Records
---
Amino acid sequence: QVQLVESGGGLVNSGGSLRLSCAASLFSFSSYTMGWFRQAPGKEREFVALISWGPGNTYYADSVKGRFTISRDNARSTVYLQMNSLKPEDTAVYYCARAMTATSISGVDPGRYTYWGQGTQVTVSS
């Protein structure tokens, strides 16, 4: 069974930084696009960032562009989300997810991601 385990969440002041990690196992990590999503209380899950298989092309939601950086280490089967200049509106549970199909770009639709981690809470105080 595919496993995705997030870590690195916590409480931080506005303007601070956090680095999330997602350790993957039991699939060919380098062959899949990986995404980060978040869900705030009372809101739908929303796309944050993705990084493709192969060349590692990245794409970000407008709300985090210039502040967040997604990266991957295929040797460690881990995807990261470096979050800088955090704002209170970034407060949410953050999830990593694996694309539905190998060697494809799943885009921003959560429905195109098959496996999800348990989530890690990020809270930004004002």
---
Amino acid sequence: QVQLVESGGGLVQAGGSLRLSCAASGGTLSWYTISWFRQAPGKEREFVAANRRTDGSTYYSDSVKGRFAISRDNAKNTVNLQMNTLNPEDTAVYYCAAARGIYSGPVLYTRTPYDYWGQGTQVTVSS
């Protein structure tokens, strides 16, 4: 059973940066496609970014493209999300998720393929 733990959230001013990390126990993250989702108060959980395990392809939602970057650190068994130029609309609880199967890009934007989820880390961006 893989357990995912997110860290790195906090309070930041608009225009600032944060780096989130997703660490795993009970499994090796390089065996999984890892994605980040977020959920703002009163809203549905939405896809943010993905790193596909088979070929390292990365995917981003339009709202974060060019500002966020997902990367793996296999030596530390972590997947990171570098978030730059943050704005108040980025305020949410951020979750990492792991999928064992092989899926096309669009499928990764949904919650369907993911086998494991973390508990989330709060990111708050003040204006």
---
Amino acid sequence: QVQLVESGGGLVQPGGSLRLSCAASGFTLDSYSIGWFRQAPGKEREGVSCISSSDGNTYYADSVKGPWTISINNAKNTVYLQMNSLEPADSAVYYCAATAERYACAGFVFYENDYWGQGTQVTVSS
């Protein structure tokens, strides 16, 4: 069964850090481009970070103040998003997604029929 499972969300104070995990089963991540997306209430889903299967390059949205780091552990078949200096505006449900399109990262071009996780809530508040 193909599955992506996010974890690591929670409540953190402004300026704090969280590390999100995206664990894959049923397929291997190293041949896919993996993106992290977020959606806040009343807002559209936006791509925040991506790691490309074509060249291993990493991408970050301009809205990410950071520093944030996306990485992949192929042995664990897991992608991580280390989020530092979090702000209240970063509060959202965060999703990971996997696509076989090798050049999807540049424009965060992911579709509904790609693999998506169920999301993990991140709340940044004092």
